[in-house]
């Protein structure tokens, strides 16, 4: 059963890649993904240890670096919590408070919505310390505001992404200091 689920997930991943990036991408994924089947028959630097298909499918799907490995663990353990925290701040009005404060400070200046995005992301980042939560909380207001005054959508999203990254190093959270090796260096 695990092999069947792994094969179905691999097929779905390759098919979604084909739909998003085209047929050459799907062929490249198939060649690279299936090369371990015949690795012991390849010449020179391409030679390697051969593995059976069920091992390859399980490794790509359930392995540490597979689709349900470390990336899924990070989303499940870390990202979801920060997104829930951002939702709570928005629901309680704290997110709107910081946006209104930033708008009062910078809204009247040229390029105001972009400056509001930076200030609001700094305020919000001082509470959350998480870039994804910051983008969700502040970007839902600042990106439409920037698009409304003529910023291209990709430029507005880039401003918000950079502002939210910078917001994570605002005091008092300073997410960089959460890593013990950085804290010892200071």
Automatic annotation (TrEMBL):
Segments forming domain TRAP C4-dicarboxylate transport system permease DctM subunit: 10-176
InterPro entries named among the record's database cross-references: DctM (IPR010656)
Residue ranges crossing the lipid bilayer per the database entry: 20-38, 45-62, 74-99
Keywords: Membrane, Transmembrane, Transmembrane helix
Pfam families referenced in this protein's UniProt entry, alphabetically: DctM
Keyword Magnesium (UniProt): no
Listed PANTHER family: BLL3936 PROTEIN
Name by which UniProt lists this protein: TRAP C4-dicarboxylate transport system permease DctM subunit domain-containing protein
């Amino acid at each position: 059963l695990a092999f069947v689920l792994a094969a179905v997930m691999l097929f779905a991943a390759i098919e979604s890649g084909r739909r998003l990036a085209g047929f050459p991408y799907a062929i490249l994924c198939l060649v690279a993904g299936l090369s371990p089947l015949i690795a012991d028959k390849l010449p020179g630097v391409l030679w390697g240890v051969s593995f059976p298909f069920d091992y390859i499918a399980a490794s790509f799907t359930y392995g540490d670096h597979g689709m349900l490995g470390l990336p899924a663990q990070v989303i499940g353990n870390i990202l979801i919590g920060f997104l829930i925290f951002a939702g709570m701040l928005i629901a309680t009005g704290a997110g709107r408070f910081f946006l209104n404060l930033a708008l009062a400070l910078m809204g009247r200046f040229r390029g105001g919505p972009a400056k509001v995005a930076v200030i609001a992301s700094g305020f919000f980042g001082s509470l959350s310390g998480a870039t994804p939560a910051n983008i969700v909380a502040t970007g839902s207001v600042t990106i439409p505001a920037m698009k409304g005054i003529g910023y291209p959508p990709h430029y507005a999203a880039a401003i918000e992404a950079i502002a939210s990254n910078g917001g994570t190093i605002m005091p008092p959270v300073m997410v960089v200091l959460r890593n013990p090796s950085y804290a010892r260096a200071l």
